[in-house]
Amino acid sequence: MMRLVALVHLAFWSAFSRPMRTALMIATLAGGAAGVTLTAGVLQGYARAMEALTFGAYSRSLVITENSFVEDRFGPPRLSDITHIREALGERVEAHAAWRRSGGDVRVGRYQASLQVYGVTGAFQHEADMPVARGRTLTDGETRSALRLCMLGPGAYRLLFPDGGDAESIRINGVNCEVVGVFGEPRSQLAERYRNAVIAPFTATARYFETPDRFGFQPGAHEAERLTIVLLRGVNRDAALIDADRALRRAHGASQANVSPFLFADPAAPAEALARQRDLIARLLISIAIVSVLVAVTGYAAASMAAVEMQRRDIALMMMSGASGRSILGQVLAEGIILGIAGGVTGIIIVGAAAILARTVFDFPFQLDGTVIALVLAGGALTGLVASLGPARRAAAGSPALNARA
């Protein structure tokens, strides 16, 4: 142990005894580390930003609807199915919502529009991803009630209140509804469906606002057009789908051997186009990162060989003092590892500082996790080790007399 500590101490002394040379070697490796770090951060940030912009939480959700291609007696999913699914999935669920949709004649004074009316219970903000521009949002308790409350999408508000006045109440199919809030512009592509819509509590919609002749879906009071189960990030969606399907079959008395009476909409299908776009950009960025790493390794190897040549007399004095070739080899390799880690840390710091500035000023999508940082540091250490291997073997194999005359 003491010998290892002494070896590391000598490696530190040798690495930083010539500041200019050390700074040049660290900067060389930092360039490669920065290229890899930047590539990983941009890819992760871009993927997360595009997912949020296009699909929101839909890309990690189970969207459950009735399987209309199968003749059965089970009907659409029910509100009680949420309990069965949550029990089956346990802590893998982040949130849930139940939706029913109908059409309605919506009137305010002399203004009238034919709009979609959505009844919802649960965390509907994951899908109706829109900020609140006026008033407030519906609370969880209100979505589970039969209160005649509602919110307007931005398009619906402009149709009913073209003068931009306060939205206090509207009439949906002749029934009065208090407007508690107005949404702003949608933040995801899927939220666009609620632009020209009214959102109200699930039970209130079923009880007051629906008319049989205005929509094709005619459920019972506790039946939903769709259930949305939002999974936590990192959860295996396929495994969750299987568990949810089993739970629903048991709850409805459906055979496990037959086709499922429910469809689990596949958010991965529209996400495939996004994944292909991301892969194309990934190939470009990875190519740039590989080139930067190759340049960094080549430059570091050349600098390492030059550094060992400059240290030949020091190495000769160490050998004459009793140092073995094995200890010389270990010292030079340890020096390479130290400089490699220092280069990795420097590259991460440079990219991290630049990313924080770009994200703050330009809202640039950049995200970096601990795994990438650990891999960059390990890669820096490995690069330093491999690049120093040749010079280290040459230094350890040289004779003290030849080294001293150099």
From TrEMBL:
Recorded topology in the membrane: Multi-pass membrane protein
Signal sequence, renumbered to the chain: none
Location of the protein in the cell: Cell membrane
UniProt cross-references to InterPro entries, sorted A to Z: ABC3_permease_C, MacB_PCD, Macrolide_Exporter_MacB
Chief subcellular location: membrane
Transmembrane segments: 284-308, 328-358, 370-389
UniProt-recorded name of the protein: ABC3 transporter permease protein domain-containing protein
The organism of origin for this protein: Glycocaulis albus
